[in-house]
Amino acid sequence: MDAEEGQEVKRWAIVLLVCGIAGAVINEWAFRQFPETWGGPNIGGGALQVCFYAMILGGVVLLARVALSKRG
User: Fold this and answer.
1) How far apart (Å, rounded) are the C-alpha atoms in residues 32 and 66?
2) Could you tell me the sign of the dihedral formed by the alpha carbons of 29, 53, 51, 19, in that order?
3) pLDDT band at residue 3, thresholds of 50, 70 and 90?
4) H/E element holding 43?
5) Per the count of CB atoms within 10 A, which of 3, 10, 13, 46 is most buried?
6) pTM score of the predicted model
7) pLDDT in tens, 44-69
8) 46-71 vs 3-33: helix axis angle to the nearest 10?
């Protein structure tokens, strides 16, 4: 991976991390504030949270890829 490609991957990793963390925090807050109307195990609650966790994991994996490519 060249330097320009590494910067692009790093940008996408940061976007995934920021959006995933923000979404997870907001979803958790909404669940705590509106437990009777928010979600359940379907898209409003649990499934949405899992999607945000997957975004965070994707960001971490991309950052690790950039870090490992700089080492090698």
Assistant:
1) 36
2) positive
3) confident
4) none
5) 13
6) 0.84
7) 678 888 999 999 999 999 999 999 98
8) 160
